[in-house]
Amino acid sequence: MDPDQRRAMIVAAALPLVVEYGASVTTAKIARAAGIGEGTIFRVFEDKDALLAACMAEAVRPDDTVAHLESIALDQPLADRLAEAADVVRGHMARIGAVAGALAAAGRLERVAPKSGKDGRLPDREASLARPRAALAALFEPDRDSLRVTPERLADAFQLTLMSAGRLGAPDPLTTEELVDLFLHGALAAPGDAR
């Protein structure tokens, strides 16, 4: 196994443990989950903080999300495409939140999250949003002639809607179906609609 494969394997084993135990997870526990010796971790990662940073970077990485979005069948109705996409994006955001929350609870997020300038964001934040946004735009494309604005602008608005609707601690979060209906049809009920 080459070093990149070993690194990916260790991170994959560590992610659920980081979510469960936060930064207090031991490298011994991670090594057991990965089926390797503890020393192997330190041949791949400089220290535990480097491993935790790699876990955070993996949680933020949009590759799986983009692949799922790109696999949504374009021959189904737009509302169904968007509902499927919303579930995919919400799952990705939940994964990011779980890892970041676990590390933040232990006061380790600041130490392991790479910084970019004064805003403290991950350096590739825009890139991690751009690829899913492009995949979302492709979901609107079959209906381009029926849309009020371009698929790209709708994808941007839908992505922002999903991000804000997914905030933690919302007292009565919208279901996926409610969110998609609201996005496609607006806030005003048609005459005769029941609430």
Describe this structure in words.
This protein is mainly alpha-helical. The chain has 2 domains: 1-48, Homeodomain-like (Arc Repressor Mutant, subunit A), CATH 1.10.10.60; 61-185, no CATH class. The protein is built from 10 helices and no strands. Helix 4 (48-60) packs antiparallel against helix 6 (78-105). The radius of gyration is 20 Å and the shape is elongated. The model is unreliable at 115-123 (pLDDT under 50). Residues 26-45 bind DNA. Keywords: DNA-binding, Transcription, Transcription regulation. One of its GO terms (molecular function) is transcription cis-regulatory region binding. Residues 4-63 form the HTH tetR-type domain.
Keyword list:
195 residues; mainly alpha; transcription regulation; HTH_TetR; transcription; HTH tetR-type domain-containing protein
SSE topology sketch:
Elements lengths: L2 H19 L5 H8 L3 H7 L3 H13 L2 H8 L7 H28 L3 H4 L12 H16 L10 H15 L10 H10 L10
Helix pairs in contact: 1-2, 1-4, 1-6, 2-3, 4-6, 5-8, 6-8, 6-10, 8-9
GO molecular function: DNA-binding transcription factor activity; transcription cis-regulatory region binding
InterPro entries: Homeodomain-like_sf, HTH-type_TetR-like_transc_reg, HTH_TetR
Keywords: DNA-binding, Transcription, Transcription regulation
